[in-house]
Design goal:
The complex is a heterodimer of chains A (115) and B (115). Chain A has 115 residues and is an all-beta fold. In chain A, 0% of the residues lie in helices and 50% in strands. In chain A, strands 2, 5, 6, 10, 11 and 12 form a 6-stranded mixed beta sheet that branches. In chain A, 40% of the residues are buried. Chain A binds chain B through residues 32, 34, 36, 42-46, 49, 51, 90, 94, 96, 98-108, and chain B through 2, 4, 31, 33, 42-43, 45, 48, 50, 55-56, 58, 90, 92, 94, 96-109.
Chain lengths: 115, 115
């Protein structure tokens, strides 16, 4: 079975500082990994994905994520946080060659960026 | 705006009742997914349809059913509602039914409150 863990329920960071939201995964075979963001009373917005290739993936709004196979991690990063980045972030994994196409999500991490 | 449209945005109904949630996928997308987001269960995959056919099934209760119509819109039917069914129900869509790099785009959700 595939699973995703987001070990931190909440991450607090000051505006202008770098931020990291952690994600680890468990899946047989090569994983396909995704990050989504959910703003209050909104749907999930796609940020970025890792399928293959370069371990550093760049996405929307200045976010990037680093795939680390040995540590089974896919942490989300941004060099300089904005107050407007405050939201709920979800990591997700898709098992390769699964019958459907669905994503399995982590429990989410709330990011609070303080001015 | 992801291009995935869900109606209604909010719904309040009584226990034992039946409701239907509607979803229009992004233009050109053949696959539709339904997810449930609740505080205690997080984001749970319910079911996926591809071009009118059921492709994958997740943690969908027997009281719940879904279908995808020839025009590719989808409906999620929830019956004999219980208090615990109160949640945010997301519809999502993607171009294909399967594929590692396939990005899934989410609508803004339908808030269901069962009283």
């Amino acid at each position: 079975a595939q699973s995703v863990a987001q070990p931190e329920d909440q991450v607090n960071v000051a505006e202008g500082n770098p931020l990291t939201v952690k994600c680890t995964y468990s899946v047989s075979g090569n994983p396909y990994l995704f990050w989504y963001v959910q703003y209050p009373n909104r749907g999930l917005q796609f940020l970025l994905k890792y399928i293959t290739g370069d371990n550093l993936v760049k996405g929307s709004y200045g976010f990037e994520a680093e795939f680390n196979k040995s540590q089974t991690s896919f942490h989300l990063k941004k060099p300089s946080a904005l107050v407007s980045d405050s939201a709920l972030y979800f990591c997700a994994v898709r098992r390769p060659n699964n019958a459907g196409n669905m994503l399995t999500f982590g429990g989410g991490t709330r990011l609070m960026v303080k001015p | 705006d992801s291009g995935v449209t869900q109606t209604p945005k909010h719904l309040i109904t009584a226990t034992g009742q039946r409701v239907t949630l509607r979803c229009s996928p992004r233009s050109g997308d053949l696959s539709v997914y339904w997810y449930q987001q609740s505080l205690d269960q997080g984001l749970q995959f319910l079911i996926q349809y591809y071009n009118g056919e059921e492709r994958a099934k997740g943690n969908i209760l027997e009281r719940f059913s879904a279908q995808q119509f020839p025009d590719l819109h989808s409906e999620l039917n929830l019956s004999s509602l219980e208090l615990g069914d109160s949640a945010l129900y997301f519809c999502a869509s993607s171009v294909a039914g399967q594929g590692a790099g396939n990005t899934i785009y989410f609508g803004e959700g339908s808030w269901l409150t069962v009283v």
